[in-house]
Amino acid sequence: MKRLKQIFKYTAVISLAFSTLISCEKEEELLSENEILSFVFDDYKAEGQIDQEEAAIRLYVPEGTDKGKLSPTIEVSPKASVDPASGQENNFKNPAIYSVSAENGALNLYTVYVEEVKNNIYSFGFPSLEIQGEIKDDNTIYFILPYGTDRSELVPEISYGENAVISPESGVAQDFSEPVVYTVTAANGDVNTYSVVVDWEEGSSENTLSSLSIPELFADAEIKSNELVISLPHGIDESEYFDLNHLKVEVEYSDLATLDIDPDDFDLLQTKEINVTAQTGEVQTYKLSVNIEAQNPDAVRGVWVTNVASNALVSEKMIDEMVNRVDDLGFNTIYVVTYNKFMTLHPSEVLKNFYAEGQAHYGDDWRGGALPTQFYGETEDNGFDPLQIVIDKAHAKGLKVVAWFEYGFAYRYGAVNTKPYTEGGDWVYNFKPDWFSMDKDGDVAHKNSFYWFNGYKPEVQKFINDLIVEVVEKYDVDGIQGDDRLPAQPNTAGHDPYTKALYKEETGRDVPNEEQESNFTQWRSDKMTDYAVSLHDAVKAADPNCLVMFSPSVYTFSKVNYMQDWPEWINAGVVDHISPQCYRYEEYGLSAYTYLVGQQMEYMGTLKKEQFSPGILIAAGSYIPTDKYLADCIKFNRSKGLEGEVHFYYEALASKSKVFHALYPKRANFPL
User: Fold this and answer.
1) Cα 119 from Cα 96, distance rounded (Å)
2) Contact yes or no for 210/177 (Cβ under 8 A)
3) pLDDT given at position 6
4) What residues contact 36, with CB distance under 8 A and at least 6 apart?
5) What are the residues whose beta carbons fall under 8 Å from the beta carbon of 38, sequence distance 6 or more?
6) Whole-angstrom Cα distance, residue 608 to residue 604?
7) Are residues 442 and 463 in the same domain?
8) Pairwise CA distance, residues 303 & 654, whole Å
9) Residue 517 resides in a domain
10) Given pLDDT bands bounded at 50, 70 and 90, which one contains residue 372?
11) Which of 107, 318, 538, 610 has minimal Cβ neighbours within 10 Å of its Cβ?
12) For the domain that residue 350 is a member of, what is the CATH number?
């Protein structure tokens, strides 16, 4: 038994010793390796470059990658562990530290650097062409340049990744007639390749010339097939204001085509053809013809000169300036205001006698004042006679002078004070109350603020005739003119006792209250026609060579509103020349004017075209038309065979000198 215990004891000792030996062997086998063997961003196929000596790892990810949220796959030494763990998201915007623990607990710290691969081209342009290329997903950089652009030596400006190298270099000229390959090598050696393609737009074969105009001459070419015809007025080639060998022209032609002329220095007289070359090279030739009228036209080209809003007649100096300007601008006729506001431009015995009768009538109560034989401060006492001065200066330059009796049967602009004379009433009204027209309410007839004498009364007709004949006999005027107030009466008139009785006597009817009742309108219009005949006869009796001219409102407005049935005046043979007032503001468009002229020409009757000159409005208050509108009106007249027009009024001439120099380069022959 004792021996068995001893054996057991020995066995236990041996077992303990063996166990201790085994335990020591295990401690000696613990691994000390603590290296990172691979570090990969699988999503970007980015494998880290590991420097074991420096314990540094570098990885390159595509440019633009969010480095704040990357999850690496990490392989480490056997039995080692890594922190942060493989697959765990980490922020690599700054260098990241990874610790690797060996089996035996030994630590190894790695610094991980993540950089973006910057081998992209960000922009590619040609500064000289002010164009940037389109960078496509397949690394093609695409340009479309205007057809024909020289691509053989273009200098690109390129922006690309930091620290990268590009070849060919930015700023170096290349021939881009064919695609050019650019390589961008990043700092890590990664290469990115781009193909730069520079194409042309599709070339245009259009080579059409659609218009040619010469603004300073207000001339537009007429295009017939491949012929350009420019028609110009007689005398333009002799004008001191234009050099036809050096003009500026405006040409409209096909986009992308070119011309073989210099629009800023165009020789109108020497150029015989104009070539239009398409972008693709096709040439179209236009033959150019310039037709300058061979004969000077026969026409009345006139201007109204008034004393309203104008100083043209206030002194001999101003009259001289006015006549010189009218002459310089190619006009041949001055229509000078001779009577308005119950005053004359000249010393008038007729008006003086009327004043004398008024003074005698009122005696000591007379307050009519001095005889207003002039419109201005100078009087006949110092020999100032504006009408005579106008005639002398105009005739010296070969200009015609027409005495324009502006107010005609109208007494004044503005209301007539019909109170008794002793209470401050109008002296003419109180002296000759039966001379005044009357409306249906018993007031002085008026329309558009003009208050009227009764043009149906023989005494009134005689007074106006005497004023006109006096001028014809005393002054060497070439003609007299009535306008929209002579012969005329407003449609509101005709309700005075004399006219009502005369209408009843001749028609058996009472005067109607309706202003435009047809029978009464026709009767009143016939009376104005009768007066036109008597005026014509009186003027011709005084001077057979004195022209009887009229400028009425446009028909039929003239008849309905002012009893001016002027086509009947023409039929009666008492019109030497007529200028219907075709006044239309530019804001209504050229068509408003052209329609009116065409319409009025239908009433010319037996008149020749040289006896018909439309009136054109070139000034009214602050209104003055543009040069183009005025020129277009005149050119329309020419297209209708009308060589003349009369312009209202003088004060706008200076501002329209370019138009008149171009379209009236030489004074037209006065035809009458």
Assistant:
1) 24
2) no
3) 43
4) 50, 57, 74, 75, 76, 82, 98, 100, 108, 110
5) 47, 48, 50, 73, 74, 75
6) 8
7) yes
8) 12
9) yes
10) low
11) 107
12) 3.20.20.80
Quote the tokens at residue 24. 């020591």
436 within some domain = yes
Over residues 563-571, the mean pLDDT reads: 98
Beta carbons of 190 and 119 less than 8 angstroms apart: yes
428: tokens are 């003419």
146 lies in the same domain as 44: no
Average pLDDT over residues 192-202: 95
User: Which two three-digit tokens encode residue 201?
Assistant: 């737009």
Among residues 292, 325, 350, which one ends one of the domains?
Answer: 292
User: Mean pLDDT of all residues in the chain?
Assistant: 93
Spell out the residues 6+ positions from residue 90 whose beta carbon is closer than 8 angstroms to its own.
70, 71, 72, 84, 96
Pairing type for strands 227-232 and 283-292 reads: parallel
The number of folded domains in the chain is: 4
d(CA 303, CA 333): 7
Out of 21-25, 360-364, 428-432, 605-609, pick the least confident. Answer: 21-25
Q: Are 406 and 482 in contact (CB under 8 A)?
A: no
**Is residue 569 exposed (0-12), middle (13-18) or buried (19+ Cβ within 10 Å)?**
buried
- 144 and 62 share one domain: no
**pLDDT score at 28:** 64
Q: What is the CATH number of the domain that holds 175?
A: 2.60.40.2340
Contact 351, 373 (CB under 8 A): yes
> Tokens 């446009």 label which residue?
554
Q: Looking at residue 188, what is its pLDDT?
A: 86
The Cα-based distances of 6 to 9, 377, 469 in angstroms read 5, 168, 181
pTM of the entire predicted model: 0.75
**pLDDT digit string, tens, across residues 102-116:** 999 999 999 999 999
The amino acid occupying position 124 is F
230 and 196 inside one domain? no
My answer on whether 391 and 320 are in the same domain is: yes
SS3 37: strand
Name which of 161, 159, 186, 156 is nearest 174 in CA terms.
156
**71 near 89, Cβ under 8 Å?**
yes
User: Which of 96, 117, 138 is the last residue before a domain boundary?
Assistant: 117
Between vectors from CA 250 to CA 249 and to CA 251, what angle results, nearest 5°?
115
Query: Residue 400 domain-assigned?
Result: yes
Q: Which domain holds residue 51?
A: 36-117
Distance CA 543, CA 576 (A): 14
Q: Are residues 58 and 110 in the same domain?
A: yes
Residues 624, 483 share a domain: yes
Amino acid found at 173: A
CB 450 within 8 A of CB 412: yes
Reported as a pLDDT band with limits 50, 70 and 90, residue 461 is very high
d(CA 604, CA 600): 7
Flag whether 11 is in a domain. Answer: no
What is the rounded distance in angstroms from the CA atom of residue 295 to the CA atom of residue 292?
A: 9
Determine the Cα–Cα distance for residues 652 and 325; give it in Å rounded to an integer: 11
The 3-state DSSP composition of the chain as helix, strand, coil percent (nearest 5) reads: 30, 25, 45
Tell me the per-residue pLDDT of 487-542, one tens digit each, with 9 for 90 and over: 999 999 999 999 999 999 999 999 999 999 999 999 999 999 999 999 999 999 99
What length does the chain have?
Answer: 672
With pLDDT > 90 as the criterion, what percentage of the chain qualifies? 86
Q: How far apart are CA 301 and CA 643, in angstroms?
A: 8
Q: Which residues are CB-contacts of 48 (< 8 A; sequence separation ≥ 6)?
A: 38, 39, 40, 57, 58, 59, 72, 112
* Token pair of 51 as six digits: 């420097």
In terms of DSSP bridges, do strands 302-305 and 333-337 run parallel, antiparallel, or are they unpaired?
parallel
Residues 222 and 186 reside in one and the same domain = no
Would you state the pLDDT for residue 371?
A: 58
SS3 of 84, please?
coil
